[in-house]
Design a protein that fits this description.
Blueprint lengths: L3 E5 L2 E5 L5 E5 L7 H29 L6 H12 L6 H25 L1 H22 L4 H22 L1 H28 L1 H8 L5 H31 L1 H23 L1 H11 L2 H43 L4 H11 L5 H15 L5 H28 L7 H52 L1
Antiparallel strand pairs: 1-2, 2-3
Length: 442
């Protein structure tokens, strides 16, 4: 339809072919549109600034109710309408990532019994598999494993628990006065004379021990004692540990009974190609991790038991504290033996009597145990080395220990070995694919 329009003020008159007239009202354009847009932007900016300030004031007033859930909800409430912006997408992704880090950290603390049960189920699964091959039902093998382990632990707690607890308490209560006595001997010159008779320059050592060693060790031991007494006096912590002690065997039993079912159910969730890759890598990881974990725990138990017995025979104080500590630190290559050696030598030097002879006994004991471990126990029980260069192993221990503390030191070796194995497999697969592609192109 052709129209002839005539502009008259704020109205437009249109005539069609039949001569009828229609009136369309239109808005007058502003005299300076850029100025109006600029004013509107300044108004929006002012409203946004005032609203943001009030939002921060409100958040500050309700800060006692603030939590990561509330923070994430507030971020999404403000920014989700602007999600088309790339910058807003980055902020939302960062907020979700930080929330997941916090949430996983909280879950790890909350799910500690499940993690412990999973590790125990993984360790004892070969035993249950062996019993199952001998026509013992899966639930029966799981019950035997859990009941046997619980019986050993209960017997150890009943017969050795009071002895270990008493020695540990005595160690904490007497170590601080012993440190003071040791420092006084250094200042009096009795120990200095012995060291000088052996040709050891003692003046720098005396100055360093007087200024640094005594106060720092007393502070450390005071903190340990405070933490131990606080743990014993915390009713909530005791209740939590009691619940964990009851919960861990139950969870371990069910995980052992349905270990393969749970693994197969998790694999069925994955798509076909991913499932094949996970099964392939999982078998490799299972071989390495099982070999290292079960063997290392067995060797650590032997080292701890042997250290306890030899320290007790040698007359070193607190053998039932130092021995189990030696077994636990044996899981940390290089640093573990050095740590327990230094601690045991310090205990020997602070125990009175012929302290130099006791210190030599400690050195010979742990030197002999370390020689036995490296030449006999590790090759026979662990089976083979994990294939990590010593320099890389030390670097892994430093990095894992720095970021994850003592737990990082425990998992540094198996984690590094698994990562190296996966990298080697990936490199081998790339070479095979490259060779296959070259053959096809030829």
């Amino acid at each position: 339809m052709r129209r002839n329009a005539v502009r008259e003020g704020s109205a437009t008159r249109a005539h069609d072919r039949r001569g009828s007239e229609r009136v369309f009202t239109i808005r007058e354009m502003p005299m300076n549109p850029r100025r109006e847009i600029k004013v509107e932007r300044w108004q929006d900016a002012a409203v946004f600034a005032v609203g943001t300030a009030l939002l921060f004031v409100l958040a500050y007033t309700v800060r006692q109710y603030f939590s990561p859930f509330v923070a994430l909800a507030a971020v999404f409430a403000v920014l989700y309408p602007l999600r088309r912006s790339p910058h807003v997408k980055g902020i939302l992704a960062t907020a979700v990532g930080l929330f997941l880090i916090w949430f996983i950290g909280e879950l790890v603390t909350l799910l500690t019994p499940f993690i412990v049960s999973l590790v125990l189920a993984y360790i004892f699964s070969p035993v249950v598999d062996s019993l199952e091959r001998r026509r013992v039902p899966r639930w029966g093998g799981a019950l035997i494993g859990v009941a046997g382990s619980a019986a050993v632990i209960v017997a150890a707690l009943v017969f050795l628990g009071p002895l270990v607890a008493g020695q540990f308490k005595s160690f904490l209560l007497t170590i601080a006065p012993a440190v003071s006595s040791f420092v006084q001997q250094m200042n009096s010159g009795e120990l200095i004379a012995r060291l000088q008779a052996m040709g050891i320059p003692a003046d720098p050592l005396r100055e360093q021990i007087t200024r640094e060693f005594g106060p720092r060790l007393e502070q450390l031991l005071s903190g340990l004692m405070t933490a131990a007494l606080g743990l014993l006096s915390n009713v909530g912590a005791i209740a939590t540990q009691i619940v964990n002690v009851i919960l861990v065997p139950v969870l371990t039993f069910h995980m052992l009974k349905d270990f393969h079912k749970v693994r197969n159910a998790l694999l069925d969730i994955l798509p076909g190609r991913a499932r094949v890759k996970v099964v392939s890598y999982g078998a490799r990881i299972d071989t390495m991790l099982g070999l290292y974990l079960r063997g290392a725990l067995t060797v650590a138990f032997i080292v701890g038991s042997l250290s306890t017995f030899l320290l007790w025979i040698a007359g070193i104080n607190y053998p039932f504290v130092l021995g189990p500590l030696a077994g636990m630190l044996d899981l940390i290559p290089y640093f573990g033996i050095l740590t327990i050696l230094i601690v045991s030598v310090i205990v020997a030097l602070l125990s009175g009597g012929n302290i130099l002879l006791k210190a030599l006994f400690v050195v010979f004991i742990f030197g002999g145990i370390n020689f036995l471990e490296t030449t006999f126990l590790q090759p026979r029980i662990v089976g083979r080395k994990v294939g990590i260069h010593p320099l890389l192993l030390i670097l892994a221990l430093i990095v894992f220990g720095y970021f994850l503390g003592f737990a990082g030191l425990l998992i540094a070796v198996p984690t590094t070995a698994i990562l190296l194995a996966l990298l080697k497999d990936e490199r081998r697969l790339r070479k095979e694919r490259g060779a296959a592609a070259a053959e096809i192109s030829e």
